[in-house]
Protein backbone atom coordinates (compact mmCIF):
# COMPACT_ATOMS: atom_id res chain seq x y z
CA UNK A 1 0.00 0.00 0.00
CA UNK A 2 1.49 3.36 -1.01
CA UNK A 3 2.00 6.14 1.53
CA UNK A 4 -0.68 8.32 -0.12
CA UNK A 5 -3.28 5.52 0.06
CA UNK A 6 -2.35 4.92 3.71
CA UNK A 7 -2.92 8.59 4.48
CA UNK A 8 -6.30 8.58 2.73
CA UNK A 9 -7.37 5.60 4.85
CA UNK A 10 -6.11 7.23 8.05
CA UNK A 11 -7.98 10.47 7.37
CA UNK A 12 -11.12 8.48 6.54
CA UNK A 13 -10.75 6.61 9.85
CA UNK A 14 -10.83 9.92 11.73
CA UNK A 15 -14.43 10.56 12.75
CA UNK A 16 -16.17 13.78 11.79
CA UNK A 17 -18.33 14.40 14.87
CA UNK A 18 -15.89 17.19 15.85
CA UNK A 19 -15.11 19.19 12.69
CA UNK A 20 -12.06 21.40 13.27
CA UNK A 21 -11.29 24.30 10.94
CA UNK A 22 -7.73 24.82 12.16
CA UNK A 23 -5.61 26.13 15.02
CA UNK A 24 -7.09 29.42 16.26
CA UNK A 25 -4.30 30.49 18.62
CA UNK A 26 -1.83 29.20 21.20
CA UNK A 27 -1.77 30.91 24.60
CA UNK A 28 1.27 30.94 26.85
CA UNK A 29 1.16 31.73 30.57
CA UNK A 30 4.33 33.72 31.25
CA UNK A 31 5.97 35.80 33.95
CA UNK A 32 6.08 38.97 31.84
CA UNK A 33 3.78 39.10 28.81
CA UNK A 34 5.09 42.42 27.51
CA UNK A 35 8.67 41.15 27.40
CA UNK A 36 7.67 37.76 25.97
CA UNK A 37 5.73 39.43 23.14
CA UNK A 38 8.71 41.69 22.44
CA UNK A 39 11.00 38.64 22.19
CA UNK A 40 8.74 36.83 19.75
CA UNK A 41 8.43 39.97 17.64
CA UNK A 42 12.17 40.63 17.63
CA UNK A 43 13.52 37.09 17.34
CA UNK A 44 10.79 35.26 15.41
CA UNK A 45 9.29 38.02 13.28
CA UNK A 46 5.81 38.27 14.78
CA UNK A 47 3.74 41.46 14.52
CA UNK A 48 1.59 43.24 17.08
CA UNK A 49 -2.11 42.37 16.82
CA UNK A 50 -4.14 42.87 20.01
CA UNK A 51 -3.94 43.75 23.71
CA UNK A 52 -6.11 43.08 26.75
CA UNK A 53 -5.59 44.49 30.24
CA UNK A 54 -6.61 47.23 32.60
CA UNK A 55 -7.29 49.63 29.73
CA UNK A 56 -9.77 47.20 28.18
CA UNK A 57 -11.57 46.36 31.40
CA UNK A 58 -9.60 43.20 32.30
CA UNK A 59 -8.57 43.46 35.96
CA UNK A 60 -6.71 40.23 36.74
CA UNK A 61 -4.37 39.70 33.79
CA UNK A 62 -2.65 41.26 30.80
CA UNK A 63 -2.46 39.61 27.37
CA UNK A 64 -0.55 40.53 24.22
CA UNK A 65 -1.41 38.88 20.90
CA UNK A 66 1.11 38.62 18.07
CA UNK A 67 0.59 37.30 14.56
CA UNK A 68 2.60 36.02 11.60
CA UNK A 69 0.66 34.82 8.57
CA UNK A 70 -1.82 32.24 10.01
CA UNK A 71 -0.08 31.88 13.41
CA UNK A 72 -1.49 33.72 16.43
CA UNK A 73 0.26 33.56 19.80
CA UNK A 74 -1.12 35.00 23.04
CA UNK A 75 1.09 35.82 26.03
CA UNK A 76 -0.74 36.22 29.34
CA UNK A 77 0.52 37.37 32.75
CA UNK A 78 -1.42 37.77 36.01
CA UNK A 79 -1.52 41.32 37.41
CA UNK A 80 -3.42 40.56 40.61
CA UNK A 81 -3.97 37.66 42.98
CA UNK A 82 -7.48 37.09 41.69
CA UNK A 83 -6.47 34.58 39.03
CA UNK A 84 -4.63 31.82 40.86
CA UNK A 85 -4.87 29.52 37.83
CA UNK A 86 -2.30 31.62 35.98
CA UNK A 87 -0.10 32.11 39.06
CA UNK A 88 -0.09 28.39 39.81
CA UNK A 89 0.65 27.41 36.21
CA UNK A 90 3.69 29.69 36.03
CA UNK A 91 4.96 28.62 39.44
CA UNK A 92 4.64 24.94 38.58
CA UNK A 93 5.68 24.88 34.93
CA UNK A 94 7.50 28.13 34.21
CA UNK A 95 6.65 29.98 31.01
CA UNK A 96 4.80 27.62 28.71
CA UNK A 97 1.73 26.66 26.72
CA UNK A 98 -1.57 26.65 28.59
CA UNK A 99 -4.15 26.82 25.77
CA UNK A 100 -4.21 25.13 22.37
CA UNK A 101 -7.25 26.85 20.87
CA UNK A 102 -9.09 25.14 18.03
CA UNK A 103 -11.22 27.01 15.50
CA UNK A 104 -14.67 25.48 15.16
CA UNK A 105 -17.97 26.39 13.58
CA UNK A 106 -19.97 25.53 16.72
CA UNK A 107 -18.20 25.77 20.10
CA UNK A 108 -21.28 24.65 22.03
CA UNK A 109 -21.62 21.47 20.00
CA UNK A 110 -17.87 20.81 20.21
CA UNK A 111 -18.10 20.95 24.02
CA UNK A 112 -21.16 18.69 24.09
CA UNK A 113 -19.58 16.11 21.79
CA UNK A 114 -16.29 15.91 23.69
CA UNK A 115 -17.68 15.97 27.24
CA UNK A 116 -20.32 13.38 26.36
CA UNK A 117 -17.47 11.12 25.26
CA UNK A 118 -15.54 11.46 28.51
CA UNK A 119 -13.58 14.72 28.30
CA UNK A 120 -13.45 16.76 31.51
CA UNK A 121 -14.93 20.22 31.07
CA UNK A 122 -12.64 23.22 31.51
CA UNK A 123 -15.02 25.92 30.26
CA UNK A 124 -18.72 25.54 29.63
CA UNK A 125 -20.00 27.28 26.47
CA UNK A 126 -19.69 31.03 27.05
CA UNK A 127 -20.71 33.92 24.82
CA UNK A 128 -18.51 37.03 24.89
CA UNK A 129 -19.80 40.17 23.15
CA UNK A 130 -18.74 43.67 22.21
CA UNK A 131 -19.64 46.16 19.47
CA UNK A 132 -17.88 43.96 16.88
CA UNK A 133 -20.10 40.94 17.51
CA UNK A 134 -19.72 37.81 19.60
CA UNK A 135 -17.34 34.92 20.16
CA UNK A 136 -18.47 31.61 21.65
CA UNK A 137 -15.86 29.74 23.71
CA UNK A 138 -15.82 26.37 25.43
CA UNK A 139 -13.04 24.12 26.65
CA UNK A 140 -11.85 20.73 27.86
CA UNK A 141 -8.87 19.56 29.89
CA UNK A 142 -6.12 17.52 28.25
CA UNK A 143 -2.68 16.29 29.40
CA UNK A 144 -1.11 17.94 32.46
CA UNK A 145 -2.53 21.41 33.01
CA UNK A 146 -2.97 22.05 29.28
CA UNK A 147 -6.42 22.70 27.79
CA UNK A 148 -8.18 22.90 24.45
CA UNK A 149 -10.42 25.93 23.98
CA UNK A 150 -12.96 25.73 21.13
CA UNK A 151 -13.40 29.11 19.44
CA UNK A 152 -16.45 30.00 17.34
CA UNK A 153 -15.93 33.39 15.71
CA UNK A 154 -18.22 33.39 12.67
CA UNK A 155 -20.23 36.28 14.16
CA UNK A 156 -17.26 38.41 15.14
CA UNK A 157 -15.56 41.17 13.14
CA UNK A 158 -13.11 42.53 15.74
CA UNK A 159 -9.32 42.39 15.81
CA UNK A 160 -9.18 39.26 18.00
CA UNK A 161 -12.06 38.77 20.46
CA UNK A 162 -14.09 40.74 23.02
CA UNK A 163 -11.95 42.27 25.78
CA UNK A 164 -9.13 43.02 23.35
CA UNK A 165 -8.25 46.15 21.43
CA UNK A 166 -5.90 46.65 18.51
CA UNK A 167 -2.27 46.79 19.63
CA UNK A 168 -0.78 49.58 17.55
CA UNK A 169 2.99 49.56 17.82
CA UNK A 170 5.61 51.40 15.80
CA UNK A 171 7.96 48.49 16.45
CA UNK A 172 7.11 45.62 14.12
CA UNK A 173 10.22 43.87 12.78
CA UNK A 174 9.75 42.14 9.45
CA UNK A 175 8.40 38.59 9.34
CA UNK A 176 10.86 35.70 8.93
CA UNK A 177 8.59 33.57 6.73
CA UNK A 178 6.64 31.51 9.27
CA UNK A 179 3.31 30.44 7.74
CA UNK A 180 1.20 28.21 9.97
CA UNK A 181 1.42 25.64 12.78
CA UNK A 182 2.30 22.27 11.25
CA UNK A 183 1.96 20.25 14.47
CA UNK A 184 2.27 20.53 18.24
CA UNK A 185 3.98 17.88 20.35
CA UNK A 186 2.93 16.64 23.81
CA UNK A 187 5.27 15.00 26.30
CA UNK A 188 3.42 12.70 28.70
CA UNK A 189 4.51 10.36 31.48
CA UNK A 190 5.49 6.69 31.54
CA UNK A 191 2.77 4.49 30.06
CA UNK A 192 0.52 7.45 29.18
CA UNK A 193 0.99 7.62 25.40
CA UNK A 194 -1.72 5.04 24.69
CA UNK A 195 -4.02 6.69 27.21
CA UNK A 196 -3.86 9.96 25.27
CA UNK A 197 -4.08 8.16 21.93
CA UNK A 198 -7.37 6.70 23.16
CA UNK A 199 -8.49 10.12 24.42
CA UNK A 200 -7.94 11.83 21.07
CA UNK A 201 -9.50 8.92 19.21
CA UNK A 202 -12.58 8.41 21.35
CA UNK A 203 -13.19 11.95 22.62
CA UNK A 204 -12.19 14.01 19.59
CA UNK A 205 -12.41 11.57 16.69
CA UNK A 206 -8.73 11.67 15.77
CA UNK A 207 -6.92 8.78 14.07
CA UNK A 208 -3.38 7.47 14.57
CA UNK A 209 -1.34 8.77 11.64
CA UNK A 210 1.92 7.03 12.50
CA UNK A 211 3.60 5.25 15.44
CA UNK A 212 7.29 5.35 16.38
CA UNK A 213 8.63 2.86 18.95
CA UNK A 214 11.89 2.88 20.90
CA UNK A 215 13.67 1.18 18.00
CA UNK A 216 12.74 4.09 15.71
CA UNK A 217 13.65 6.82 18.22
CA UNK A 218 16.77 5.82 20.11
CA UNK A 219 20.48 6.44 20.47
CA UNK A 220 23.21 4.67 22.37
CA UNK A 221 21.88 6.17 25.59
CA UNK A 222 18.22 7.19 25.41
CA UNK A 223 14.92 6.31 23.76
CA UNK A 224 11.32 7.45 23.50
CA UNK A 225 8.08 6.39 21.85
CA UNK A 226 5.60 8.52 19.93
CA UNK A 227 2.18 8.35 18.27
CA UNK A 228 0.99 11.06 15.87
CA UNK A 229 -2.73 11.81 16.04
CA UNK A 230 -4.57 13.66 13.27
CA UNK A 231 -8.08 14.99 12.78
CA UNK A 232 -10.18 14.14 9.73
CA UNK A 233 -9.08 16.96 7.43
CA UNK A 234 -5.43 16.66 8.44
CA UNK A 235 -5.17 20.28 9.59
CA UNK A 236 -4.49 19.38 13.23
CA UNK A 237 -1.70 16.97 14.17
CA UNK A 238 -0.62 16.13 17.70
CA UNK A 239 2.36 13.82 18.20
CA UNK A 240 2.33 12.34 21.72
CA UNK A 241 5.69 11.31 23.24
CA UNK A 242 6.42 9.16 26.27
CA UNK A 243 9.77 8.02 27.72
CA UNK A 244 11.25 4.61 26.99
CA UNK A 245 13.88 2.67 28.91
CA UNK A 246 17.46 3.67 28.13
CA UNK A 247 20.89 3.80 29.72
CA UNK A 248 20.52 7.49 30.58
CA UNK A 249 17.78 10.06 31.16
CA UNK A 250 15.92 10.86 27.94
CA UNK A 251 14.85 14.30 26.77
CA UNK A 252 11.26 13.38 27.67
CA UNK A 253 12.24 12.58 31.26
CA UNK A 254 14.20 15.84 31.47
CA UNK A 255 11.17 17.73 30.19
CA UNK A 256 8.82 16.04 32.68
CA UNK A 257 11.20 16.87 35.53
CA UNK A 258 11.55 20.57 34.72
CA UNK A 259 7.95 21.03 33.61
CA UNK A 260 6.70 19.16 36.69
CA UNK A 261 4.56 16.90 34.55
CA UNK A 262 3.15 16.57 31.03
CA UNK A 263 2.83 19.52 28.68
CA UNK A 264 3.48 20.90 25.21
CA UNK A 265 7.10 20.18 24.32
CA UNK A 266 7.38 21.98 21.01
CA UNK A 267 5.52 23.84 18.30
CA UNK A 268 6.41 23.06 14.68
CA UNK A 269 5.86 26.01 12.35
CA UNK A 270 6.00 25.82 8.56
CA UNK A 271 7.98 27.96 6.15
CA UNK A 272 8.36 28.03 2.37
CA UNK A 273 12.10 28.82 2.56
CA UNK A 274 13.79 27.28 5.57
CA UNK A 275 17.25 28.58 4.73
CA UNK A 276 16.05 32.18 4.58
CA UNK A 277 13.93 31.77 7.74
CA UNK A 278 16.79 30.23 9.73
CA UNK A 279 19.30 32.83 8.55
CA UNK A 280 17.02 35.64 9.69
CA UNK A 281 16.27 34.01 13.04
CA UNK A 282 19.97 33.44 13.72
CA UNK A 283 20.70 37.11 13.04
CA UNK A 284 18.00 37.98 15.58
CA UNK A 285 19.54 35.85 18.30
CA UNK A 286 17.71 32.51 18.07
CA UNK A 287 19.95 29.53 18.83
CA UNK A 288 19.54 26.17 17.10
CA UNK A 289 20.71 22.66 17.90
CA UNK A 290 24.07 21.64 16.44
CA UNK A 291 23.85 18.47 14.32
CA UNK A 292 26.83 16.05 14.25
CA UNK A 293 28.88 16.74 11.11
CA UNK A 294 28.96 13.06 10.10
CA UNK A 295 25.20 13.26 9.46
CA UNK A 296 25.85 15.23 6.27
CA UNK A 297 28.40 12.73 4.93
CA UNK A 298 25.69 10.19 4.02
CA UNK A 299 22.38 12.04 4.07
CA UNK A 300 22.13 12.40 0.28
CA UNK A 301 22.72 8.65 -0.12
CA UNK A 302 19.57 8.18 1.97
CA UNK A 303 17.29 10.94 0.64
CA UNK A 304 18.45 11.27 -2.96
CA UNK A 305 18.40 14.44 -5.04
CA UNK A 306 17.18 17.65 -3.40
CA UNK A 307 16.96 21.26 -4.58
CA UNK A 308 19.11 22.68 -1.79
CA UNK A 309 22.91 22.70 -1.55
CA UNK A 310 23.99 20.18 1.08
CA UNK A 311 26.81 22.47 2.27
CA UNK A 312 24.24 25.20 2.95
CA UNK A 313 22.13 22.80 5.00
CA UNK A 314 25.25 21.67 6.88
CA UNK A 315 26.22 25.27 7.59
CA UNK A 316 22.85 25.91 9.21
CA UNK A 317 22.33 22.45 10.83
CA UNK A 318 19.20 21.81 8.76
CA UNK A 319 18.05 18.18 8.57
CA UNK A 320 16.46 16.52 5.53
CA UNK A 321 14.34 13.37 5.16
CA UNK A 322 12.23 11.75 2.43
CA UNK A 323 9.04 9.68 2.25
CA UNK A 324 6.90 8.38 -0.63
CA UNK A 325 5.38 11.83 -1.22
CA UNK A 326 8.55 13.93 -1.32
CA UNK A 327 11.01 15.32 1.19
CA UNK A 328 11.10 17.73 4.11
CA UNK A 329 13.63 20.00 5.77
CA UNK A 330 13.60 20.69 9.49
CA UNK A 331 15.56 22.33 12.27
CA UNK A 332 15.03 22.70 16.02
CA UNK A 333 15.75 25.65 18.27
CA UNK A 334 17.32 25.30 21.66
CA UNK A 335 14.80 25.87 24.48
CA UNK A 336 13.21 29.32 24.26
CA UNK A 337 12.66 29.42 28.02
CA UNK A 338 15.07 29.25 30.96
CA UNK A 339 13.81 25.80 31.86
CA UNK A 340 14.84 23.19 29.24
CA UNK A 341 11.23 22.66 28.17
CA UNK A 342 9.57 24.52 25.30
CA UNK A 343 11.25 24.85 21.89
CA UNK A 344 10.24 25.46 18.28
CA UNK A 345 10.71 23.37 15.15
CA UNK A 346 10.97 25.05 11.75
CA UNK A 347 9.81 22.77 8.94
CA UNK A 348 9.57 23.06 5.17
CA UNK A 349 7.60 20.35 3.41
CA UNK A 350 8.36 19.65 -0.23
CA UNK A 351 5.68 17.01 -0.64
CA UNK A 352 6.55 14.89 2.41
CA UNK A 353 3.76 14.18 4.89
CA UNK A 354 5.96 12.43 7.47
CA UNK A 355 7.91 13.70 10.50
CA UNK A 356 11.59 13.08 9.74
CA UNK A 357 12.08 9.52 11.00
CA UNK A 358 15.43 9.33 9.23
CA UNK A 359 16.67 12.30 11.26
CA UNK A 360 15.75 11.01 14.70
CA UNK A 361 19.15 9.55 15.62
CA UNK A 362 21.14 12.67 14.67
CA UNK A 363 18.57 14.95 16.27
CA UNK A 364 18.49 13.12 19.58
CA UNK A 365 22.27 12.85 19.71
CA UNK A 366 22.36 16.63 19.43
CA UNK A 367 19.74 16.97 22.18
CA UNK A 368 21.78 14.62 24.37
CA UNK A 369 24.83 16.86 23.86
CA UNK A 370 22.78 19.77 25.23
CA UNK A 371 21.54 17.61 28.12
CA UNK A 372 25.16 16.72 28.95
CA UNK A 373 26.02 20.43 29.15
CA UNK A 374 23.11 20.90 31.55
CA UNK A 375 24.11 17.87 33.63
CA UNK A 376 20.74 16.20 33.07
CA UNK A 377 21.64 13.31 30.75
CATH architecture of the largest domain: Roll
Helices and strands, in order, run as: HEHEEEHEHEEEEEHEEEHEHHHEEEH
The oligomerization state is single chain
| Helix percentage | 25-40%
Question: What is the CATH class of the largest domain?
Answer: Alpha Beta
Q: Total number of β-strand segments?
A: 17
The number of helical elements comes to: 10
Percentage of residues in DSSP E strands: 25-35%
Largest sheet: 9 strands, mixed
Fourth CATH level, the homologous superfamily of the largest domain: 2,3-Dihydroxybiphenyl 1,2-Dioxygenase, domain 1
Determine the structural class based on helices, strands and strand pairing. alpha+beta
Strand order within the widest beta sheet: 6-7-8-5-1-4-3-2-9
Gap from first CA to last CA: 40 Å
The general outline is globular
Supply the number of structural domains.
Answer: 2
Amino acid sequence: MSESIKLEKIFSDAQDFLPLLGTDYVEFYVGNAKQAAHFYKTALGFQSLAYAGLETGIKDRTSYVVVQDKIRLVFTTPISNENQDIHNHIERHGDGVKVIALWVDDATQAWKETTSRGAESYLEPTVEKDTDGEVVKSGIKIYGDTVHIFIERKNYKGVFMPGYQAWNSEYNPSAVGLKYIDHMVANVGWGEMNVWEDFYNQTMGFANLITFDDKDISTQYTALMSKVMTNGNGRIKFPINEPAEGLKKSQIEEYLDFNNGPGCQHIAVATDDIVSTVCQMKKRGVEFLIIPERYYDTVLDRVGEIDEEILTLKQHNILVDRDDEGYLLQIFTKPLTDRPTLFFEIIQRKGAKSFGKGNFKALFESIEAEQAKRGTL
